[in-house]
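[job 4471] stage=fold_predict status=RUNNING
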Amino acid sequence: MYFKANGVELYYEKAGQGNPVVLLHGNGEDHSIFDVLTEQLSLSNTVYAIDSRDHGKSSKVKGLDYNSMMEDVAMFIQELDIQKPVLYGFSDGGIIGLLLAIKYPTVLSKLIISGANTHPNGIKAVIRFLINIVYFFTRNQKYKMVLTQPNITNVELNTIVVPTFVLAGSKDFVKETHTRNIAKNIHNSVLKIVECESHTSYVIHSEKLFKIIKPFLDEPES
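[job 4471] inference complete, writing structure tokens
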């Protein structure tokens, strides 16, 4: 299905019935990375898996930035009248989730992020070096975005009021100190470092993620 938001068409898939959950993929991916998770969640929830702008089947654009991507999701939730969804964002999707919770504090019921960073320096130096090389040769705007954005401050994180579950792999390319700082500055947050997992290993086409996030999903809203 398609939804028009802010001049672009977003492709999304909807499955299941129950309390709504919105899934946001990472950089260079699409909604299909959540096929396993969607199948599991859809037994008890209505799941909306979105392709971000310039990803998957959604519209291509000339320039990318996280704030525009966040506004796409905000409009998607508003126009489809999705009441108080849980948002799970992986990597870039987690960044979008943080920005949404900062600007629109009453839209979500809960936020789950994994492998997200609030500044390019939150990514380990060796990974940034490799991305720089790839960007030098490709000039791909997706890599440029990673190298220059986001710029979310601790003060902005302090404004998030929605219950938040902060995840990262112990072998993630986001620095663990950075992940811990995110959780520390969101007052109503829970942190889990998933042992022996990388940035993607427990997320993409994985049955592990559902078991990790299900207890948080099932917690009564405070």
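[job 4471] summary: Residues 2-218 form a domain with the Rossmann fold fold (CATH 3.40.50.1820).
[job 4471] exit 0
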